[in-house]
Request: fold
Amino acid sequence: MIRLRNMLGIATATALGATVLAGPAAADDVVQWTSSNYLNNSQAGIALGNVAFTSASDTFAAWTLTSGVNYQPQVTRGTKGASTTWPLDEATATQSQTQLAMAKDGSTGFAVYKKLVGGVGELFWSRWNGTSWSGGTELATSVNLATPPAVDIRRDGTFGVVVWKTSANGTQAARFNGTTFATPESLDASTTGGTLSAAVATGANRALVSWISTSAQLRSRAWTGNGWAPARDVSQNVGASTAGAGVVDLSADGTRSVAVWAMNTGAETARAAVGNGDTWATPTTLGTTVANIQDMDVALNADGSRAWAAWGYDTAAAGSSVYLNRAQLESGSWSSPTIADGPKSDDTRPDPDVGISDSGLRATLAYRGKQDSANFVGYVQVLSRGSWGSGVPVGTFEGNSVSGFTRMALSPNGTLGSAVSVENTGGQQVLARRAMTILTAPDAPSAPVAEQLSTPLGNIVRLSWTPAEFIGNFDYPSFSVESDPPGPVCPTDGYSCVVQGMTPGITYRFRAFATAYYGVSEPSPWSEPVTLPLPPGDPVSPGDTSLATPKISKLTVKQGRSAKGMRKVQVRWTTTAPATSYQIRVSKPGGKKWKPWRTVTRPKAILRLKRAKKYRIAVKAQQAQVTSPAKIVRFRVKR
Reply:
């Protein structure tokens, strides 16, 4: 989708004497999807495990190649315009999906899978070292082949966990330290089959796993950083009720938790509970009783204040009228469920996959839907600015299948994502990926840090801040600063600037804004107050060039690659004396009229200019309130 700047409806507002752009209205958020691209060659059969998203261009998918009675674990990495597939092991008569967990920067990760060795089920793992996958290494023996393992990893990749069922239906787990796994540990010696779930805090060495006990309870154990806490009863069954299909998640620091599951009392209801990472509150019933609840999923945001849950269900006999429900947790209370899709007929089984941003204000719901009476379609719904969009078809499947169909991975701030589906055509299957970008106003940077620096011409104040996570496949945000009281200016270059126009003896504070194509962020928090000391004598007068004024001694222009009619141009310069900042301006195409001056703190600038056009560039050096004459260079941009 292309949207012109004058269609955005961006308004201006004045705050503390500075003019800034107000963020766009909710309607100006634009969700973009790339066209589908295939990640591998057509195969006889594919069972999709899960998906990890490590950057705007990198997606990892764990899957199992099925051919007759043989199964082979695979991982595929899709980048922009290319993909690579690694077979992790030989093909054997294994029966479980391959699962992976990846650090957010793609530097490390692991995949797990099960296979038969001498007629005995064993659990193996493979490590990603940043460039390739290692061969399989045995982690555990005598494992249950029917129940897929569950995995998760800390965002920086330094801690992870895998949980699995033993052949005797015990539940075991092993911890990952970024390089290898610790010895497996028993969590419950005797459990039933069914869903396993694992969650790792994104910012702490804490984990939470869940399983169904022999008494049909949803139970959990938490890794606290020092050991496994005792098993807890999450579902708190009453009477003859039984729990199933349980899923858990953790906040970023591991101190808050959420769980959802199906409770069977003859008919079924969806249940949910919140906890402090180890102990659980009284469960909440989500919606009314239905005939049959299918797969469930839940995702909790970074501070544990918001969550979204989704599940499929039948209103009558299994397969008669299939719906997909979703419900929201906010400030400790669950909303009434709403229908996300349905009714559908036959064996649709939505198999939902929920993702949520750190803030909880953006979320995704990937699921299986029905295109017609015979064919499935993978859909993704996106939550942005408080509203869910309709389902976007991301993959099609000819014929019925209940294997993993569509999985979605989301960036921490929820503006980037990647959906991977199993597509089936003519009896052959392939992994298809579509990338998502939400074009929206940037998130606010951190509060500026004010640092006083001593120079030969007196004290100056330098501000620096940390930007929010990069958002979207478009130009990185620029930044602006405003002061309280108003007056000083601080033209920025990247994530810092030198304040100009401060009056000695006056106390100031500063805050920063991020500006991108689709609007301006909320302001950052205010900096700590800062005051320039009064000078011992008369202050330097503006324009006083009797002091050692730094001059531009050399100005060079280097032309780089071109794209879409523009060429990257790098400008560098040197000075005859130290400078605290620089002013640079470039002419409009043709070289006659100038654009406004802007201030930078480093002796370089990157420009994108139209090809085959003449330009002028002017640069001046500044030291406190003293400014050098401008040095000008003329050139033509290459075609």
About this structure: The radius of gyration is 29 Å. The chain has no helices and 52 strands. The chain has a mean pLDDT of 82. The longest strand covers residues 428-439.
